[in-house]
Design goal:
The chain is mainly β. It has one domain. A hairpin with a 4-residue loop joins strand 6 and strand 7. The longest helix has 13 residues. The chain starts with a helix and ends with a strand.
Length: 251
């Protein structure tokens, strides 16, 4: 049972969209081509203000719902003199609760600082991640059972965060099939590509969506092709076949 819970934990939280932490893993999904659909272009000055947005997802393993995740855009603030956006991402699945408070810069939406509380009975962990994006350094501190561990990761360029990734991509002014971006997570690098536009159905309804997949093929993301650019579905490629499907959206 402990092994199964641990597997779910890594796949649904540390990968959720994306493989972000030092323990990150996978995601993926099939593409269905919808021809002759014009992409939505958002000039930079017209990118929506997402403050106050809340997106609720069903977390599923195959056909079974096993939990809920919530992404909440909170207030703008300052962090070390830098304009920052605070978002909170919570996941409750099986016997695990995970809450992440993430400060991202408002220009590129790259992570600056993360506070993470993980409760997986009977264990409790606190993790902080401090990003120096100018020097491409990530310092991680993990506290559990009265013990503290620290580590440092150095990359050759900006360091992305898996949770933020779909919400970073949505801010790209012009999206059309063929668009791609290199992603550098703490332990791996890959490329995401916009493959097509397609219809996707989730509990919140049916949307025309931009379909992205990674290379290597580890995950798939569907982002609504309207002015809101909502990540409506995320699907992993693991044998456990997990998905996050939007149940509700409010702002």
């Amino acid at each position: 049972m402990t092994f199964i819970l641990a597997a779910i934990y890594f796949l649904l939280v540390e990968s959720v969209i994306m493989l972000y932490s030092p323990h990150g893993r996978t995601l993926l999904g099939p593409a269905y081509q919808v021809p002759e659909v014009c992409p939505l272009v958002l000039p930079e000055k017209q990118v929506p203000d997402y403050v106050g947005e809340e997106i609720v997802y069903d977390v599923k393993m195959g056909a079974m719902k096993i939990g809920t995740s919530v992404f909440h855009h909170q207030e703008r603030t300052k962090l070390g003199g830098v304009d920052a956006q605070l978002v909170v991402f919570t996941t409750r699945v099986v016997q695990m609760n995970d809450t992440e408070r993430i400060w991202a810069d408002t220009k590129e939406f790259l992570p600056l600082y993360i506070e993470r509380d993980v409760r997986m009975w009977p264990k409790y962990e606190q993790i902080t991640e401090s990003y120096d994006q100018a020097r491409h350094i990530l310092d991680i501190t993990k506290t559990a059972g009265g013990k503290q561990q620290t580590s440092r990761i150095v990359k050759q360029g900006p360091i992305h965060n898996a949770i933020l990734l779909p919400y970073q991509v949505r801010r790209v002014a012009k999206l059309a099939p063929g668009w791609s971006m290199k992603v550098t997570l703490p332990t791996q690098e890959f490329e995401i590509t916009l493959k097509s536009l397609e219809e996707v159905t989730v509990p919140a309804g049916t949307f025309t969506a931009f379909y992205f997949e990674s290379e290597p093929k580890r995950f798939a993301i569907w982002i609504s092709a309207d002015e809101r650019r909502i990540p409506v579905k995320i699907k992993g490629s693991s044998g456990l076949n997990y998905m996050m499907l939007m149940r509700s959206y409010s702002k």
